[in-house]
Amino acid sequence: MEIAAGYHSFVDETPERARRAWEPRYMRYLRFVASLLAPSVELDSSQCASWQGRAEDLRRVTLADIYPDQALCGDPAQCVDRIARRREERGITHFYAYMDLGGLYQQALRGSMERFAARVMPLFRRPGSGRDPVFGPHPGRRHIAVTAGKTAWYDQLDSKDSG
Fold first, then answer.
1. What angle do CA 76, 6, 142 make, to 5 degrees?
2. Distances in Å between the alpha carbon of 157 and those of 20, 56, 76, 104, 140?
3. Do 145 and 154 touch, CB atoms closer than 8 A?
4. 76-107 residue pLDDT tens
């Protein structure tokens, strides 16, 4: 069985820097999402109440309410620890990180993505493998690679095809 999990994520050199750079932008993002949860006229009263409650939760939530269980924000070591714990606790086989929530300076976003790629991802490679991470991709499947400002699809190559 394969289980995927993902978090809104930001990685900086220290936990304090990560939180200071990311928290205000993440809270703004959650408030924006709350504004999109206006109930539809097609919903019955119980569904409408549920949507309104969810929107109100998002308007009031703080990072302290959702960290560490629902957001990944910290230095590389903290991120490695959190992902590894989730893998052990919940059997996660694939992990994805939502990094661009809007509002982050390009340099901060790119730095976060580079730290994640260089100092978090390599620690989740299968033993004896130079390129096959524990959390996907797998041969023959289509995946998306995201870089600051660009998105590209690629097909994972079998090891015999890689040079």
1. 105
2. 39, 45, 28, 33, 7
3. yes
4. 999 999 999 988 999 888 888 999 988 899 99
Question: Does the reported pTM lie above 0.85?
Answer: no
Hey, what are 134's tokens?
Answer: 């524990």
pLDDT tens figures, 95-152 = 889 999 888 999 999 999 999 999 999 988 766 555 445 454 444 443 444 433 333 3
User: For residue 78, how far is the Cα from the chain centroid?
Assistant: 14
Q: What is the DSSP string of the chain?
A: ---EEEEEEEE-SSHHHHHHHHHHHHHHHHHHHHHT-PPPTTS-HHHHHHHHHHHHHHHH--HHHHTTTTEEEE-HHHHHHHHHHHHHHH---EEEEE---SSS-HHHHHHHHHHIIIIIGGGGBPTT-SS-BSS---TT-EEEEEETTEEEEEEPPPGGG--
